Each structure stands twice: as C-alpha cells, then as structure tokens.
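Homework-ish question, so no full write-ups if that breaks the rules, but can someone show me the predicted structure for this set?
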Amino acid sequence: MPIELKHVFYTYDEGLPSSREALSDINLLFKDHCFTALIGETGSGKSTLIQHLNGLLLPTSGIVQVNDYVIDMTLEYKKKHGLPTDVINTHAMKKKHKKKQKDIKTLRKRVGLVFQFPEYQIFEETVIKDVSYGPKNFGATNEEAIASAKRALALVGIDHSYYERSPFELSGGEKRRVAIAGIIALNPDVLVLDEPTVGLDAGGQAMLMGLLTEISRNGTSIILATHDMDVVLKYADRAIVLDQGKVISDSTPLDLFQNSEFLNKSSLEPPKVFRFALDLKKHGLDINLNNIKDCDSLADEIIRVKSGVK
Amino acid sequence: MNLTLGKFTPFNTIIHKLDSRIKLIALIVFMVSVFLSYGTPYMNLVIYGGIFVILLFISLLGRVSFLQLFKSLKGLWFMVLFIIVLNIFLPGKTSGDVAFSIGNVKVYYLTIINVSYILVRLILVMMMTNIFTSTTKPMEMTSALEWLFYPFKFIGLPIHKIAMAISLALRFIPTLAEETERIMKAQASRGVDFHQGKIKEKIKAIISLIIPLFMSAFLTSGELADAMEARGYDPDSKRTRYRAYNWGFNDTFGVILSAAFLAGMIVLAVYQYDLFNYLGISLPKLS
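A: Not a homework solution, just the prediction itself:
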C-alpha cells in the first residue's frame, strides 16, 4: 500500500507566539514492500512526520495519500489564510471531510503505528487481552481477535505460558514486544515504528530487528524512525534524512554512508563497520560495499576477496 | 486534548510584567467586590457592568484570549442548568411577585434575579481567573501564594512544603497533558475512538488512557523524588530565591489602583448608595 506525501507542512501551536514549524514542504513516496529508515536528530520532525501517516496529525497544508485514501488540507489552509480558492470545490471538500473523519479508523488499521516506548500503552490485566484489544476495536469478534493476538505474539516470540500473565510483571524487553504485538495483531499493510530499539539491550535489539525483517519479508512495508546507523545499514533499503522539518537526503543507505561530504555537513556518523570497510577499500582491498551489512558480512566479504583474488 | 483553564500565553504585555503578588491581590479584591451586595438589583447590575468593563480592559491589555474563556464557559452549562433548576424548585423566599408559572411551580422575580446574580458572578470570576492564569507563569503564581501565606508560618503551617507541592503539581500539568496526548494517540492507533461510540466503549476508551497514565505518573513521581534527593533537597532547610522581584512603577500603580478599587467598592456596599435615586430616576421595584 503506497503512501504519498505532497507539499506537507505542519505547524505546532499555529497562531500562538510559541508556534513552530515542524514539517516544511515534505514530498515523499513510500512504495510497497519497502524497508525505509527515517533518520534525523531529536526535533528534526521524524515523529511528526510519522503521525501524519495514519492520520493522527493532519497536515497544516498539503496532501497525504495512503493508497486510495486522501487527506487534502490545501483547501483548508487556503481558506484559513484568505487565499483564493475554488468555490465549487469547497462544498465537495466539506462532504468529503465528513466522510474522512469516519474512515480514519480504517486508515489506522492499515497503517499500524508503534510509538516510542510503546510499553506505556499496555493496560489490560493479561497479555492476551491487551494484544487482542486492537483487533476488537476494529470490529473483530472475540475469537478472531484472540487468534490474531496469538499469531502476533508467536511472531514476537512470546509463548503461550505468558498469555494469562499480567503484562505489568514482564521485563522491559518483553513488555515492548507485547506492545508491538498489539499493533502487529491488527495485521497492517504498513508498519511504522518510532525508535523501536531505544532502551533495549543488544539481544533485545537484535531480536526486534530480526522480527521486523521477518514481517517485511511477509510483504508488510516497514517505516522506521531511528538514530541507530547500524540498524539503517543492516536492514533498510532506503534512508531518508530529515533536518529541521525538511528532507535533506533520500537515497539508499549505501549511497548515504559513502557521501562523506554530506555526512560531514549533517553531523551524521556512518557505522564503524562501514567506515572500516571504506578504509579497507581505500587502501586497496577490492571489496563490494553492497555486501557490507554488519561485522559478519564484512568478514565474509574479506574472506571472499582474499580467497577469490589470490 | 485541550486544557483550557490555566494556560499561560507567552506574551510580553504590561499585565504579564506586573508583579505576580499584585495580580494575586487584585484577583482577590475583584472576587470580594463581585460577591458584595450593593443594594438594589439595578445598582448591582451597574456595578457588575462596571467590573465587566474593567476586566475587559485588562483582558485587552494582557492580550487574553476570549476564545479560551468561552471554551471554559461552555463546560459550565450543566452547572448553570443545575443552579436554575435548584433555585426554581427551592426558592429561598416564597414571597414577592410571581413572574410566571410552569404547571404548579411558581417562578418568582426574586428567584430569577438570584439565579442571574450567580451566573453573572460565575462568569466574572472565571474571567478574572482566566486573566490571572494566562498572564502569570505557574512558578510566579506559586511564589505569590507562598508570599501571601507567609503569616501562617508563625502558627506552624509548613508554607514552604505546601508551596513546593503546589509548584510541582503545576509544573507537571503540561508533562501530564503531553503524556495524555501521547497515550491517546497510541491508543488511537489501536483503534480506540475517544470522541464517538457508545457509553460502554467510551468507558473502555477512558480506562485505556487512565491506567497507563497512572503508571507513568507514579513512575515519574518516584524518579522526581530521587532526583530531588540526589540534588540535596531538604524540605526543612531554609531556602533562598533564584529570581528577585523588581518592584517597578507599574507595580506601585497596580497596588494603589487595587486598594482604591477595593475601598470604593466597600464604601458603595456599606452605604448602599442608590445611583438612580440620586439621579432622580425611578425604576419599578423588583422585590
């Protein structure tokens, strides 16, 4: 399910002295089956952008199109600021707007959004109840909801001995996985995650990213906001860099990390593995940077080159 | 989530710059004058009208949003209804002229007047507090309260602890509001609808908000206590103030104005001057 953003602007506290433009003229297209990483410093607009993808925030101006579902705020913006509008369109827009409010729930089912520290959204007495809460909200029967909850929990590696336990007595990593299962249980076409690995130990991070890879292999698009360049290099097939509400780079991770001029300017740190690989290449080892994902693949590549050439 | 009451608007007007203690005193002065009685209903009407105009003027000076006021008034309709019903069915005095009757229930002029007094006072008080809260930072508010309560220290009231508790509570309103919004959004992503739905669904929606909110509030308060202790906070020790008050001309002016206003109102209330009588205008007696 493709998601397209056209000239999206978003301003917090519009009209107040504390107003702040969080997004400014964002034009992006997220294609099907993508694994996209959104990179940017705190306050660069990542989280704001993410909330536009399932209609939690409506743009101040601009168009968000998710498959055939359109949120068009250009007209509202023009009216608000007294810009000339097409009068005939206004009425149709109003009608559409009403319908939109109703439909926004279906949008949220199709674009699953996992917030930062999602473990705070847990509230039910048992794990299985909490995970099946989402599907039930979207109209599934109790049996269906529990079935999809079980599927989601199996996917995140929570077995049935946990089902009847209170989610509040689980460890931090387990809680996070239960919370993510709560979104996966909705069976979304696009899964959007805001810094899912923050606060997890190395094992938990690897497990979570493995899970996301598996979900993405099943045909779900993944959009991931992250600080972690290792994650970007290893998993993403596209890296979008945001800075002060603007897209300043949109390429594959490989191109991004090779563009040293850009990296210097934007204070992004390429992963250590990748820098090491670049140095190796610079000093004459003919490795294929496309194959470098992490330490293991670098080692494999070195072995391949060494044994293949000589 | 819209927290209308007590939202500070960061402008830099003369009202914003006024010493918070004076604003607090002026607030009390205005409240007292609204609840005084000035004789005949006509006289009260004139005085309330006067206070309304003054408040309007102050609102304009402080760039206070009227929208916010209307929003907070909108939430009061149930209370208004309650007051009206209670006053109609339980009139204090069953004397005077009957204005009209609904079935067997007689509605007296006096009742109507009483109800309108309550409503007018309510609106005026909300206007005042709205001005105070939108032009005074929460921290300034607390220090003003602490200053005002200072005399109670001598009868053993832990003023500082109370002030600290209030300022912490105020400090965490925005944090909690932010947290609420975050959890609401997270639950909305799970298909919770906070605006529509049946009562049962709504209750469930609220539960899905309240439980996580409490969890995080308890967590935060524990962390805050640890952080305060780590920085050597001792509730019993003597404290100094970070920001010194700069007493300016405007502040003196504000004090004089408030004092004069209060004095005038008290004089009006005590002597019950009837302006209309004085001007020779005769109006129909109402009670």
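Now go work out the reasoning yourself. Hint: The first helix of chain B runs from residue 14 to 17.
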